[in-house]
Amino acid sequence: MNNSKIEKKLAAEKAVTFLKDGMVVGLGTGNTAEFAINAIGERVKQGLQIQGIPTSESSHKLAESLGIPLTDFSNNIAIDITIDGADEFDPYLRLIKGGGGALLREKIVASATSKNIVIVDASKKVERLGKFLLPVEIIPFAKDLIMDNLAENGLSPKVRMNNKTPFITDEKNLILDLNIYNQRNLEYLEKRLKSIPGIVETGLFLSTTSMVIMGEGKEVKIFD
Ligand code: 5RP
Fold first, then answer.
1. Could you identify which of 9, 150, 202, 210 might form a hypothetical disulfide with 155, taking C-beta atoms 3.0 to 4.6 angstroms apart as the criterion?
2. How far is ligand 1, taken at its centre, from the CA of residue 103, in Å?
3. C-alpha closest to that of 138 among 103, 166, 175
């Protein structure tokens, strides 16, 4: 296992120690979240009683295959802890997410969660968000209008591809990846993006994070 994977696994295993019997747990998406789901599967086998709410079809499949009991918002509208990854986090625990294309369900789950634990390897720590392109999920019907608007505003939108065809999200939408490196006011950017008809959600998570657990070498660091 390479260093980044070891760091992801360490962070994931630490996060899982926060789970207790009876909790409803949001299950994130991505490689780091997969380490957490696998660790939760192990603890469920040992008797931990939780119910999971997955943030993507792939996490749903993995959790089901491990025998983790699952639920949804028709049964539970409050989530105790969500464990999810991130593409970048800054000193204010603001995030860019959506590298795996699951940002919409991830944001919905994060918004319904009391304690959001973000798990990362050390490469995700930045002073300023935006080296990673910001994913936004859009309705396909509005693609050209939105691309035009964003290009005029200097955000250089690119349609995310999956080999030679556009990447399609679990909600059957498209992802645009935006260059936001020169944007200083992220709260304003978030409002501006959300006001464009056809943009469903952005990968900016500005105020949901309770704690970041970062693997670094063989250590785990906590930011809260
Ligand atoms: C998926 C995400 C992931 O959490 C993010 O892309 C990090 O992925 P990884 O753990 O594979 O580095 O936001 O939409």
1. 150
2. 9
3. 175
Domain spans of the chain, in order of start: 3-125+206-217, 134-202
Distance 153 CA to ligand 1 centre (A): 27
8 conformational bin, left if phi > 0, alpha if psi -120 to 50, beta if neither? alpha
Sheet of strand 219-223: strand arrangement: 51-54, 24-27, 79-84, 113-121, 209-216, 219-223
- Does CATH place domain 3-125+206-217 in 3.40.50.410? no
Let me know how long the chain is: 224
Please give the model's pTM, rounded to 2 decimal places: 0.97
The continuous run of DSSP H or E covering 63 comes out as helix 57-65
pLDDT tens-place string over residues 46-87 = 999 999 999 999 999 999 999 999 999 999 889 999 999 999
DSSP state of 9: H
- Asked if residues 200 and 103 have their Cβ atoms less than 8 Å apart, the reply is no
**CATH level 2 (architecture), domain 134-202:** 2-Layer Sandwich (3.30)
